[in-house]
Specification:
mainly alpha, two-stranded antiparallel ribbon, 2 strands, about 75% helix
Length: about 625
């Protein structure tokens, strides 16, 4: 069964990759692409139902496909437990809906077959990462999603800017991947194994403390690359160059969640290093705030959602850092629902407006695209954390554990959630409620059936998905705590009173509601404070609008020096010195040959003189 889950998308990739060159009709390509992921989802759901019936100790499936590197004890083995089954359901379930949506969205694209082949390969790589029972196999899946992101972000590679975005994602991720690889080496050197099951049962002593800190920090740097955390987040906003369904897949079901999953999977190592956990929480919190502020003045609908993804990932890392691993996975799941919904709904808007992405050129779409308007509203309410939508339960649970960790951690997390409310309501209002920029157009069309089906299912999941983690104060069992409890062994204890939890929940909800109403009224009436802000704080506005010049800083400090060094090495060392030296030798030999060829003139007297000079030279050398 595990083999079916893993290899069905790989088979879809191979078949579509082979047949797409024969220019077949798009129906068989779509059936193979969508069907392979659906097979994986159905198989995973069957195992999930079995796990629900089994006692916690039985919720484990393992299989070894073959020995890979016997001398290192590395084999190709798969593991399905409570954690990996949830991630598998997210990857295949949300992934299938994105595949289904893509059938119509990409139907006019000449690269239809190549697109679905890449989507299937992306899904396979993420499943390999999730199901791997050793770190080396996990790393192969880790690299696989990186490769697929490059292929899909730069899918329209004929456009130099889109191709450049793919390269940027690939290169930035290589920095994190190098750190991850060093972590693998250090893990094997220290423990002599890369098997996750063996590592989880290891008895760690005080002598392991320092090395575990280094291992976990190296792995965390890798996670910062894949999951777009400071300072390696810069690739994700540019990843919007790819097709919109690709953005949904990267941001919701694959890749960016890989870092969060990796820390959850290796939680037993992170629990041995409080320093690393503090760094994880700090980076997550800083990323949540920093990226939320950068979304304030973005006008590209997809880039607003991209920065929101970075911010929401920051919340997940905050949860991991305070030891609330279940809460982090909970938010990963709910985020997959509402972020996939928001991206696909944004795709519906872009599709209807003939590829327009600037929200300043939109408006008045709530009547002309009613279905898209409703589902986008569901996604917005979910990401804002309004009850009873999914984000309410997962976000508030993270803030609750942050409050128990330290008041300031909770305060900054709450501030980040208010910032989320501002930029998401601004986005929603400008797209759907401000005065229309398309009143004269009669050709705006709602999402076709396949796209609409994906949107409706994701909207329902965004509305009710949070009920798998209802807080204890509602006197309902927390399903995820019970289901994932055996995986994480120790869950953070709740030290606050129910009254405190109720109070914090009410405060965050009411303040978010207040910001939402104020933002909606401001932008709906075109009397937003933004105009006054621009005039009074023009330098600050420009700083935020230009994303704090981080890309420019990286270009000045890293990209330009490395490029100049490479140009110097090419022009001075390679061309002038190395090529010049060997080309000079060749030129010297050629010139000498030409000079000597003058002696070959056919005159016997000349030959005799040269011969005598040679004989005299030899005799003199012998005499001396």
């Amino acid at each position: 069964m595990l083999e079916t889950i893993l290899f069905a998308p790989l088979l879809g990739f191979l078949i579509n990759g082979l047949i797409q060159r024969y220019r077949l009709t798009k129906l068989p390509i779509a059936i193979i692409g969508c069907g392979s992921v659906l097979i994986s989802f159905v198989s995973a759901f069957y195992i999930f139902l079995q796990f629900l019936e089994d006692p916690p100790s039985w919720r484990l499936l393992t299989t070894t496909l073959f020995e890979w590197i016997p001398t290192l004890g590395v084999d190709v083995s798969l593991k399905m437990d409570a954690l990996s089954i949830l991630l598998t359901l997210v990857v295949t379930g949300v992934g299938f809906l994105i595949h289904l949506y893509s059938v119509h969205y990409m139907e006019k694209d000449s690269g239809f077959g190549r697109y679905f082949a890449y989507l299937n390969l992306f899904t396979f790589s993420m499943l390999l990462l999730v199901l791997a029972n050793n770190l080396l196999l996990l790393f192969i899946g880790w690299e696989g999603v990186g490769l697929c992101s490059y292929l899909l972000i730069g899918f329209w590679y004929e456009d130099p800017l889109k191709a450049q975005a793919g390269k940027k994602a690939f290169l930035v991720n290589r920095i994190g991947d190098f750190a991850f690889l060093l972590g693998l080496f250090l893990t094997f050197q220290t423990f002599g194994t890369l098997n996750i099951e063996s590592l989880s049962q290891w008895t760690f002593g005080p002598d392991h403390a320092n090395v575990i800190t280094w291992i976990t920090l190296l792995f965390f740097i890798g996670a910062c690359g894949k999951s777009a955390q400071i300072p390696l987040y810069v690739w994700l906003p540019d990843a919007m160059a790819g097709p919109t369904p690709v953005s949904a897949l990267i941001h919701a079901a694959t890749m960016v969640t890989a870092g969060v999953y990796m820390i959850a999977r290796l939680h037993f190592l992170y629990l041995q290093s409080p320093l690393t956990l503090s760094i994880v929480a700090g980076i997550g919190l800083l990323t949540a705030l920093f990226s939320a502020s950068m979304a304030f003045f973005q006008n590209d609908i997809k880039k607003v959602l991209a920065y929101s993804t970075i911010s929401q990932l920051g919340f997940m890392f905050l949860a991991m850092g305070v030891g609330a691993f279940v809460s982090g996975i909970f938010h990963l799941i709910t985020h997959a629902f509402f972020k996939a919904l928001l991206f696909l709904a944004a795709g519906s808007v872009i599709h209807a407006l003939h590829e327009e992405q600037n929200i300043q050129n939109m408006g008045g779409l709530h009547q002309r695209l009613p279905l898209t308007h409703v589902v986008f509203l569901f996604g917005t309410l979910a990401i804002l954390g309004f009850p009873p939508f999914s984000g309410f339960f997962s976000k508030d649970e993270i803030l609750w554990y942050a409050f128990q960790h330290h008041f300031m951690v909770w305060f900054l997390g709450w501030l980040a959630s208010l910032m989320t409310t501002y930029y998401m309501v601004r986005l929603f209002t400008l797209v759907f409620y401000r005065k229309s920029s398309h009143e004269g157009e009669q050709h705006l069309h709602e999402a076709p059936p396949l796209m609409a089906l994906s949107l409706i299912v994701l909207a329902l999941l965004s509305a009710i998905g949070g009920w798998i983690g209802v807080p204890h104060i509602f006197h309902i069992d927390h399903f995820l705590n019970h289901f994932l409890g055996p995986v994480f062994q120790t869950l953070p204890e709740s030290h606050g009173t129910p009254a405190t939890e109720w109070g914090l929940m009410a405060w965050t909800t009411l303040t978010s509601l207040g910001v939402a109403i104020w933002t909606f009224l401001s932008f709906h009436t075109d009397k937003a404070w933004l105009t006054h802000f621009k005039l009074k704080f023009s330098k600050l506005h420009r700083l935020i609008e230009q994303k704090y010049y981080v890309d420019e800083f990286y270009h000045f400090m890293l990209v330009a020096p490395i490029r100049n060094l490479c140009i110097f090495a090419w022009k001075k060392i390679d061309t002038l010195f190395i090529d010049g030296f060997f080309n000079g030798l060749a030129s010297w030999a050629t010139a000498l040959g030409l000079k000597l060829s003058l002696l070959q003139n056919g005159n016997t007297q000349t030959y005799a003189i040269i011969f005598m000079i040679g004989v005299i030279g030899i005799l003199m050398s012998l005499w001396i």
